[in-house]
Amino acid sequence: MTTLIIICAIAVTALFLAKIKPYVVTTGSMVPAIPVHSVCFVNENATLESIAVGDVISFRMGESALVTHRVTAINDGRYTTKGDANNTEDTSPVTAENYIGKTVFVIPKIGTAAVFLHRRTGRVLAAVVIVLLMVTSFIPTKKDEKTGKEIKSGTFKAEKNSTDREP
């Protein structure tokens, strides 16, 4: 388990150093290609000029909304986009000012945990789990004399004495 955590940490660090950032999809505008709560990995090094019709890009719409949609047309440096599940194209074109990057790969549904952890109940539950893991890691262990297996102190194992009677 520790090895898996270390490998994941190295992979995430490498992605961040390469300027490939994860974004959780919270709407169904790109279904079925990108399901709700998927994580899109967006290459922020990909230049807007390298984008072609059919590419999926991320951009800012307005002050704070982050959108991931497919490019449907390119005219004079203005990129028209549309969500695969939407009936109409987006009203504002993407330009260098609001472009973030190109989606390079997607992992479906793993964003569910991130969405949950952004809620108050998710943060509280995560804190409780972390505290419990920390507390249990400090419970001393001892070896069972017969099996050689480690058992947590305070765990009682009934031993049969020769004076005990079978019912």
Computed Rg: 26 Å
Major sheet strand order: 1-2-6-3-4-5
Biggest β-sheet strands, sense, barrel = 6 strands, antiparallel
Question: What is the 3D form?
Answer: elongated
Oligomer: single chain
Number of strands: 8
Q: Which percent range fits the helix content?
A: 10-25%
The ordered string of helix (H) and strand (E) elements is: HEEEEEEHHEE
Tell me the name of the CATH class of the largest domain. Answer: Mainly Beta
Distance between the termini: 44 Å
Average pLDDT, rounded to a whole number, is: 88
Examine the coordinates and then state which fold CATH places here, giving the name of the CATH topology of the largest domain. Umud Fragment, subunit A
CATH superfamily of the largest domain: Umud Fragment, subunit A
Can you describe what's shown?
It is a single chain. The protein is an alpha+beta fold and about 170 residues long. It is built from 3 helices and 8 strands. The protein has helices spanning about 1-15, 110-115, 120-135, and strands spanning about 20-25, 40-45, 55-60, 65-75, 80, 100-105, 140-145, 150. A 6-stranded antiparallel beta sheet has the order 1-2-6-3-4-5. The chain has a two-stranded antiparallel sheet with strand order 7-8. It is elongated.
In short:
The protein has helices spanning 2-17, 111-117, 120-137, and strands spanning 20-24, 39-43, 56-61, 65-75, 78-82, 99-107, 141-143, 150-152. The protein has 167 residues and is of the alpha+beta class.
